[in-house]
Specification:
Number of strands: 24
Radius of gyration: 30 Å
Strand order of the largest sheet: 6-9-10-24-23-22-19-12
Distance between the termini: 68 Å
Helix content: 25-40%
Low-confidence stretches: none
Shape: globular
Mean pLDDT: 94
Length: 594
């Protein structure tokens, strides 16, 4: 039986089809009434076809009255367009279909947003009517691109010998850094499942179970606030793990996958050659002021504390005596910039919570600016040597305790790179950030805590944990960064029970707590666990970069808004009282504000 809806898709017809009688189905994308002729651009998933209805045709009135975005089936004859009416921008632009029959499959109401336009609409409207938003050309292309990228990632992992497994969605809560989404149990009153923040424990257990290379396109759930590059609620990652590997083995597995995907879908942009640079965390914080540096930005931050230590510039000298450092951020070829440029940088720094940004301008008449007069010639020459400043350049300064100075300098580097249009164009620049600190000092809790992934192997193993200052211990942890976006976190795992218990004890966990929280994993490790490691590149961020979209919601089919609400289906929503009784729970609302 022939398909009653179409003989061809709306992107298929070409001049070779001229003379054929065809049937097309799709949405009315656009209509143009030329008096005796009505032109309909019919759209489906595959493309557009121009269709023509003559005013003498019995189906003209119905075609004229049917609204945009109604679904129709057209039957008619393919004809070649005249040379002066060919549309070279459309794959089907050399033909049109002369309509003989129209069947309206589904009428559309008045549209809350235009599908055939690139006009901007409020995000609330776009998310509430996401099914319409996804019909728009750019959004449709983004979701197709996402599918193609995932298929390519999957195939490249399979080609390397990885096996795809699915891990549980209902699991136990664990302290992985973010809030869990909890699911109450009906069969076990007072107990809760958690949706996985990541398949971390299960992928490690697969290695203990003897599978050598695992991966999955894994959904992850975290009850976090929304950001432009992070979706509230759920996200997807290319989760993978390998046994009997070093850190470099993991890099060798994922580097070519990401490189090739960015070459394939990057629209001709250059991609960092293999191997990607390896940048230690401490070096990244010094040179870039951040652990996810945008290497398209050529500016390099310098430590110039020694230049101001003991100098007559009392503000910096005093702060250095109290443990502060001074970071220098270069601004090339800005010596002749108007005073307003420097005033705006100072105003911006104050908006970041700093006192301001000191600076020295190396002009043709020598160094000038509010700080220059406090430095003698030797100190100025040392400053130029450390920052590689040349005549015509400016150097800005951030002076504070090390973390605050790094943060301000890093933000200033980003701002200057953008303000001065220094970022390299049409390129994806990758790097690995390695040697993350195992621990950090938590100012709020006044205790040592994990700085990254608590399941990573400390460099130096048990001996380091027992004999070194915890804040001096690095871990086999690493991130992959592209153009200033963190795409991936990973590590070589801690597979030894005694090392794991000791590592958690330094972060304030008792052995009993560790044995309870990670009972399954510790039990498995006590029956022979291979050294293993892996990583988990974020699918959403990869697609975001390749689609050149600044907001993650542009590359997710049905995202939540920034309040973690799904405006399309109305989630989260109240549930029936009986459902709460079945789950042995009740709702206690927070007290009204004010």
């Amino acid at each position: 039986m022939k398909n009653p809806y179409r003989t061809h898709t709306c992107g298929a017809l070409r001049p070779d089809n001229a003379g054929e009688h065809v049937r097309l189905s799709g949405w009315i994308h656009r209509k143009r009434d030329h008096g005796h002729l009505l032109f309909i651009d019919l759209r489906d998933h595959y493309g557009l076809t121009q269709c023509v209805v003559d005013s003498a045709s019995p189906c003209f009135k119905e075609a004229e009255e049917t609204r945009l975005e109604s679904v129709i089936t057209l039957a008619g004859k393919v004809v070649k367009r005249t040379p002066d009416t060919v549309n070279s921008l459309m794959p089907t632009g050399e033909i049109e279909v002369v309509v003989e029959e129209i069947t309206v499959q589904s009428k559309a109401d008045l549209l809350p947003l235009q599908v055939n336009s690139n006009a901007e609409f409020p995000e609330e409207t776009r998310l509430k009517y996401r099914f319409l938003d996804l019909r728009r050309e750019k959004m449709h292309a983004n979701i197709i691109l996402r599918s193609q990228i995932i298929a390519a990632l999957r195939q490249k992992m399979i080609n390397q010998g990885f096996l795809e497994f699915q891990t549980p969605i209902l699991t136990a809560s664990s302290p992985e850094g973010a809030r869990d989404y909890l699911v109450p149990s009906r069969l076990h009153p007072g107990r809760f499942y958690a949706l996985p923040q990541a398949p971390q424990q299960f992928k490690q257990l697969l290695m203990v179970a003897g599978f050598d290379k695992y991966f999955q396109i894994a959904p992850c759930f975290r009850d976090e606030d929304a950001r432009a590059d992070r979706s509230p609620g759920e996200f997807y990652q290319l989760d993978f793990e390998m046994s009997f590997v070093t850190q470099e083995d993991v890099f060798a597995a994922i580097e070519p996958v990401l490189h090739d995907v960015f070459v394939e879908f990057g629209g001709g942009k250059a991609v960092s050659p293999l191997p990607f640079p390896r940048i230690p965390y401490a070096e990244s914080m010094l040179k870039y002021g951040i652990d996810k540096p945008d290497l398209r930005n050529p500016l390099i931050i310098s430590d110039v504390t020694e230049v101001f230590d003991g100098s007559t510039f009392g503000i910096f000298a005093k702060a250095i005596g109290e443990g502060a450092v001074v970071r220098a951020i270069p601004a090339p070829k800005t010596a002749d910039n108007p005073r307003s440029f420097f005033d705006k940088m100072n105003e911006w720094a104050r908006e970041q919570g700093a006192a301001g940004l000191g600076y020295i301008v190396f002009g043709a008449e020598g160094p000038k600016g509010p700080i220059a007069k406090f430095l003698d010639e030797d100190r100025l020459q040392k400053l130029k040597a450390l920052t590689e400043a040349k005549e015509g350049d400016t150097v800005f300064f951030a002076c504070d305790k090390i973390k605050a100075a790094e943060k301000l300098a890093g933000l200033a580097r980003i701002r200057l790179g953008e303000e001065l249009d220094l970022l390299e164009k049409n390129v994806f620049k990758f790097c690995f950030i390695v040697d993350f600190p195992m621990y950090e000092w938590d100012e709020d809790k006044e205790k040592i805590d994990f700085s990254h992934n608590p399941f990573s192997m400390p460099q130096g193993g048990l001996e380091a944990l027992e004999n070194q200052d915890p804040l001096d211990i690095n871990a086999y942890q690493y991130d992959i960064v592209c153009n200033g976006s963190e795409l991936c976190s990973g590590g070589i795992r801690n597979h030894l029970p005694e090392v794991m218990i000791k590592a958690f004890s330094l972060a304030g966990y008792t052995q009993e707590e560790v044995e309870t929280e990670f009972a399954g994993m510790l039990s498995a490790f006590r029956y022979g666990a291979p050294p293993h490691g892996g990583a988990a590149p974020g699918i959403d961020r990869i697609v975001m970069l390749l689609a050149d979209e600044p907001n993650l919601r542009e590359v997710v089919a049905f995202p939540m808004n920034q309040k973690a609400e799904d405006l399309l289906v109305g989630a989260p929503a109240p549930v029936r009282e009986q459902q709460l009784k079945d789950l042995h729970i009740r709702v206690v609302m927070p007290p009204a504000k004010g």
